[in-house]
Amino acid sequence: MDTTFMTPITPEVIAKHGITPDEFTRIREILGREPNFTELGVFSVMWSEHCSYKNSKLELKKFPTTGSRVLVKAGEENAGVIDIGDGWAIAFKMESHNHPSAVEPFQGAATGVGGIIRDIFTMGARPVFSMNSLRFGDIRGDSAEARTNRRLFAGVVEGISHYGNCIGIPTIGGEVYFDESYAGNPLVNVFCLGVLRHDQIARGGAVGIGNPVFYVGAETGRDGLAGAAFASRELTEESKEDRPAVQVGDPFREKLLLEACLELLASGCVAGIQDMGAAGLTCSTCETASRGGTGVEIDLNLVPKRETGMTPYEILLSESQERMLVIVTKGEEEKVRAIFEKWDLPYAEIGVVNDDGMMRVREGDSVAVEIPARKLADDAPLYSREAAPKSRPEALDLSKYPEADCHAALRTLLAHPSIASKQWVWRQYDHMVRLGATVLPGSDAAVFIVREAGKILAASTDCNAIYCRQDPREGARIAVAEAARNIACTGAIPLALTDNLNFGNPHKPENFLQLREAVEGLAEACRAFDTPVTGGNVSLYNESPAGAIDPTPTVGMVGIVEDARHITTQFFKAAGDAILLVGEPGDELGASHYLLAVHGMKAGPPPRLDYDKELAVQGAVRTLIRAGLVKSAHDCAEGGLAVALAESCLSGETKFGAAVQIPGGAKRADVALFNESQSRIVISVDPGKEAEVLTLLAREGVPAQKIGTVTAGPDLEIQASGRALRWPLAELHESWSGTIPTLMGA
Amino acid sequence: MKFAVLRFPGSNCDQDCVYALNAIAGASADYVWHKDTSLAGFDVVVIPGGFSYGDYLRCGAIARFSPVMQSVREFAASGGPVIGICNGFQILCESGLLPGALVRNRGLHFLCQHVRLRVESNASRFTNAAVPGQTLNIPIAHGEGCYFADEETLRSLQANGQVLLRYCDAQGRPTEAANPNGSRDNIAGIRNEAGNVFGLMPHPERACDPLLGSTDGLAIFHSLMKGWTQPS
To answer: Among candidates B6, B34, B33, which has minimal Cα distance to B18?
Structure first.
């Protein structure tokens, strides 16, 4: 017996659904009557930040979303689509699963991977690789907090590994940072890319009046309801114990769903398709109707369910995983059934497309929900929140931070969990399935051969949140620049990017200022690098009792390598090769990992990005790579030139030494070694080609010089500011590669 | 010579095997669906990697009951060559076509990495294109690849020359440090007594294209393509 229709709509019930009095007035206007309890639930999820972007949409409009390669724009469908030539295209997107992962790291991360994969194959694309950007609190030490952070880290990595490995989509790269600002509120941003022919782009519109609506995939259960609202307390009391707070992922089911949907789309029977992600059945029905300019009517009695006695409220708001809504061309039902049966998937015909513009949900003969679909899907209120006044980060007073022991400092930096080797992480991911990973994880960007298309892609996720904390606009600009630089180092040309904006509560003016500044910084940089935004995700309310996270606008950029001979990695290749610094030696220590790791401070302004310089450096390195003159290329990022050199020595299968003299007039060796000035790439070249390379760079007007030579080892030697430093490679390797396995108990 | 690559629900290296065989090894391969029961026209059966039926009960435990596996048993009984890679090796052990079992890796983590393998014998249809003692660089990717068998089984595997591949270091020594998953006796691949069924945890299909860092996996596929008769 469903009693939810009778639940009175009191101001408390409305407030518990997160709906403001003004929003409630608007709901009454849309309906021309009072909503019932189920309808209130439907509005509350559709008008949540997660589904409607009501606090961020006005900012997101600032992103450039068009370009000659854009086939489907951001926001039009589940993911943007970019042309990669010869009739082939890619669909890619990044999405967060931060809060579920904080509660239940394994399933939270696993279902995050499942969700982003569905977004991609919903577009008609075969998912070919994934990446992720992860952030946790500090994992060092014996405190309860450190132990919690290690548990979250291990759980998230295992969840990603479980889901990605089973479904057979390689996880080929990403990033992991550790910082106290993420304690209690880890970030799990997952990226997936798929490939398709131009004529295979699938749309999420309910088109064709009279077309049947099919449900396919896992049965609907009560999982995921707690995230949507407070349902557990208001509904049946005994259902509470059955209801896990986080959805449970089933990668095997999703693998079947993926193969069945691609087969279905190829059959030509599909008029529209949409995955059921956040807000499940609710979101997929009203969005498909809204996109199709139609109405959709479904009967909940026909929905496959895994539990009995579910109310319309529960069925509509369930976030059970691995489900899709398919609008089938009338007359093709039998073909569709045959495909679902081949793949042993539960399915049902649950409704029909009609012409009245309504999302109408029946339960047998009674109507549970009747809402104009377009108004529900697209007319959520939009807010421009109050932003705090802008403030500039204080200039860095270096005298407060005396030069540390540089010898120890490099080891400290390499042992910092954010910089240390992440092999412990990525060897748990199957990164080789689909025969594409030609540059393995651990280099600047991952490089992947897409076999079906005969194309080679490079991809990188980036964001330095310390920069963004100190100056969100500059930090966001640098996130884009660094992603493009990583792509350039592999020999690729950047194509487009997706972003995941992780911020604190937007109702706090200082947080909203960070969001606005970061969005404007990203937008500006995307224009500079000609990389339109194909879509992404906004995750606000990332706060723990200790406060908001550092603003983290993560970008995931994709580029294309035009010839397999151009593929370049970051590690040194042969003793005797000349080491060149493309770009200037630099001197900016503000917001650096040196100050963080050695002095324990996030201080000063981030380095300044000059687009012209950056574009010139990236362009020149790409030109050299394409001319076959570069043996390795590695950008300078966290830890500056010294860390970049150490990584080039250590990260290949064969370790090399180097003898380097850092040019420039830095008075302090720490500044010379660890500054994080932008637009710098370390390359190694055949000694016979050194003059040719330098001439070419001079002709391009790019500052560059030889700074040293690759050696057979056994040391990394660097002279800087009148000091001669020498580190045995074995020691550096121990700091860099031993840290995370040791902390995590191998 | 025609290769059948089986597709179970949850197989995920099926496309890779077909690609490596057709596009790189120069063989001819096609898919066989798990609900099919005929292997007519095929000369070799490949059981690829993945997570057949989600591997939820135990790796390979459900796949052994699949309709196609009855045909594979008959195919093997009549002397047809069968190669099981990763999940395929697990399925062969679960089916009783190979002795022993594959259990959780020693470190309890899934491991995806290149490993070195020593070819213990080239007197088989699966390794005749290699040289005994040769080391191959082929990647692994598994959570449950630790080979286990009782003492008696191990002794008979060794006595009959059924161990074809062992994990080894760069110098070809089967050391403890070179054993990625705790397999007994560093075993990476074994054949049955009759010599026509072979299971291995490493993925030869991932080591065929030079762009992926190694072409050593071709030694396995080329051995099968050369054809070889067990000396009586």
So the answer is: B6
| Spatial distance between the Cα atoms of B117 and B125, rounded to a whole number of angstroms | 17
A362 touches A299 (CB < 8 A): yes
Residue of chain A nearest B13, judged by CA positions:
A433
Eight-class DSSP state of B11? B
Do the beta carbons of residue A274 and residue A287 sit within 8 Å?
A: yes
* Residue ranges of chain B with per-residue pLDDT less than 50: none
Of the candidates A456, A464, A518, which has an alpha carbon nearest to the alpha carbon of residue A487?
A: A456
ipTM of the complex: 0.96
Contacts of A345 in chain B (CB under 8 A): none
Residues of chain A with pLDDT under 50: 1-3, 226-243
How many domains in chain B? 1
pLDDT of residue A239: 37
Nearest to A251 by CA among A348, A125, A157, A112: A112
**pLDDT at position A244:** 54
Strand residues in A301-355 grouped as ranges (E) = 323-328, 347-354
Find which of B109, B208, B214, B216 to mutate to test the A interface (most A CBs within 10 Å of its CB): B109
End-to-end CA distance of chain B: 23
A129 contacts A228 by C-beta, under 8 angstroms: no
Q: Can you give the pTM of this predicted structure?
A: 0.94
User: Chain B contacts of A251, Cβ < 8 Å?
Assistant: 51, 54
- Interchain pair B54, A427: CB under 8 A: no
Q: What are phi and psi of A144, to 5 degrees?
A: -60, -35
CB atoms within 10 A of CB A449: 21
Looking at residue B50, the DSSP 8-state letter turns out to be B
The 10 Å Cβ neighbour count of residue B38 is: 10
Contact B211 A438 (CB under 8 A): yes
In a domain, B203, yes or no: yes
Q: Which of residues 400-459 of A touch B (CB under 8 A)?
A: 426-435, 437-438, 440, 449, 451
Burial (Cβ within 10 Å: 0-12, 13-18, ≥19) of residue B78: exposed
The verdict on residue B11 lying in a domain is yes
Helix (H) or strand (E) holding A579: strand A578-582
**pLDDT tens digits, one per residue of B23-75:** 999 999 999 999 999 999 999 999 999 999 888 888 888 888 899 999 999 99
Look at residue A468 in the predicted model and tell me its pLDDT: 98
What is the pLDDT at residue B63? 87
- How far is it, in rounded angstroms, from Cα A285 to Cα A298? 8
> Does any domain span residue B51?
yes
**Beta-bridge partners for A549:** none
8 Å CB contact between A225 and A231? yes
Contact status, residue A449 vs residue B24, Cβ threshold 8 Å? no
Q: Cβ(A459)–Cβ(A129) under 8 Å?
A: yes
Domains of chain A: 16-62+203-378 (3.90.650.10), 66-80+127-186+428-566 (3.30.1330.10), 385-420+568-746 (3.90.650.10)
Cα–Cα dist A57/A351, whole Å: 32
Residue-range definition of the domain harbouring residue B84 = 2-225
Give me the CATH number covering residue B59: 3.40.50.880
Q: Within the 126-185 window of chain B, which residues sit less than 8 Å (CB to CB) from chain A?
A: 139, 141, 143
